Amino acid sequence: MSFKAISRQLMLPFALLLTATPGAHAAPPAGRLLASQCAQCHGSNGNGPGFDEIAGKSASELRKDLLEMKRRPVEGIMDRQARGYTDAQIKLIADYLAAYTRGGDN
Amino acid sequence: MHAFNRREFLRLASIAAAAAALPRTVGAAPTVAARVVVVGGGFGGASVAKYLRIWGADQVRVTLVEPSSSHVACILSNLVVTGALSMDRITLGYSALKKRGVIVEQAAVTAINYGGSTGSVSLSNGKKLAYDHLVLAPGIDFVPPPNDPQDWDPEITPHAWKAGLQTLMLKQQLAGMRNGDTFVLTVPKSPYRCPPGPYERACVVADYLKRKQRSLAKVVVLDANAGIQAEPLAFEQAFNSIYRGMIEYIPNATVSSVNSQARTIVTSAGTWSNVRVLNYIPNQRAAAIGPENGGNRGLPHLNAQGFVPVDALSYAVSGHPNVHVIGDACAVPASEGKGVPKSGHMANAEAKVCADAILRALKGEAPDSNVATGSACFSPITAKTASWLSGNFNYGDIYDAAGKVKGKGMHRVDLDEAPKINGDNYEDMFTWAEGLFADSFV
Known about the structure:
Distance between the termini of chain A: 46 Å
Number of helices of chain B: 9
Strand content of chain A: under 5%
Radius of gyration of chain A: 19 Å
Oligomer: heterodimer
Shape of chain B: globular
CATH topology of the domain at 28-97 in chain A: Cytochrome Bc1 Complex, Chain D, domain 2
Strand order of the largest sheet of chain B: 5-2-1-9-21-20
Order of helices and strands of chain A: HHHHHH
Largest sheet of chain A: none
Structural class of chain A: mainly alpha
């Protein structure tokens, strides 16, 4: 078997390595660490167990909800929690959750 | 497609072989997995093990060392004391973590070698685990009373501040109270585990006694601090109104001795003798690792209060970049008077920051500095109502008492309690606990 033939056989797993998951040297997606602080109350994948599902929503919807909670008078605990993040952090969290979570993916 | 040279071929072949040998691990690093040893299986230890595996996959070989076969959560444990919940509701096992590939060693730590790149952890089962990174999440130990410490025996007067048999002992003692009896509870000097917890316990104990037609019984709260340490509006309302005449709150009560046999406690605010239940919750410090008599009780460093100072971005200990301490045992740099609370929720938050920092360090990267942590909790006030507490911290400048910047750390950006004690909060409490239990242990 020639090198070329072997290397062609190797292409499939190699392609998977590049595309299926972030490789060993890829930086974690922006917002992942900040968004992980939602998981205590909304589930590790954003859809429970816990309070309202935050997985599978659009970034604009999440951002709008979080900014609204941050600015309205406090009633529930989430109105307080939203005050713990800068507007820039809220954008990162919303963008990450929209890109990396799916509704129903528990 | 270009032709591969021999070196590239060998590299690719080893990747492919690794991928073929471990079908689940397609995408894993083609290098040997880094060894991370986690000591302590509470909320911090379980969460860091879980998130290292979620985010690091097979780049990390994670071993969790814990002597018990399960963790009994302190969260909701006051409701086990009153009989509202059973122990199984707060008992959390490690089977889900094992399914995530965490290796669980049910053993105690006998010694730790903080030897930099050659560090290792020795276990009671004879094993010795070498580590690239070590995460210590040992929780708390109790500081005995200063005078006649040999007279204090928590097997007679339970603290029930580490949940488990202690919780059941306190439950049994409460159930044995008669009308007119006295239940004395102490609040430790801050910082201690779960700031609202002792006040919450006073409330649910008083509620229990009321419901059992023992309204002449008294609950005495002896606080080592100058005032209520958390949710002052809720607990003042509880002490002054809901349980008026039943709960007596006494601040600035520094404990000097406890005689468990005589159920007597001597404090700077007076002596209580031969009470029916003495729930002495002692002052706290980071739990010892390995032998109690080792230097620093087996921990790499301790501050004056007995906790381990850490870096706020990596939770690493000064001088030991690959040794991290999270949860109740650590002291996070914070603004004066705005300390990071010791709670299961906060331990989970710190675990994620620590896991992310370890995975970055393994790639030679600095930790992320865009870091936030927080704690949220619900406190039952009666058998049907609760309050809540929310606190948030963001990495950046931290301030001394005069408002001057003293360095970098986790600055408290928000803290407050529920505007009302109500029944919705009581229902939400179980949703919150279920979520936190799952995010940490499942």
